[in-house]
Amino acid sequence: MSLFGNFGCMECNHIYEFKCDFDAYLCGVGRVQVGKGAVCECRSNGSLYFLNSKNYLPYEAVQLIAANPVEYLNDITAMLQDIRKEKK
Question: What is the pairing mode between strands 48-50 and 22-26?
Answer without folding.
Answer: unpaired
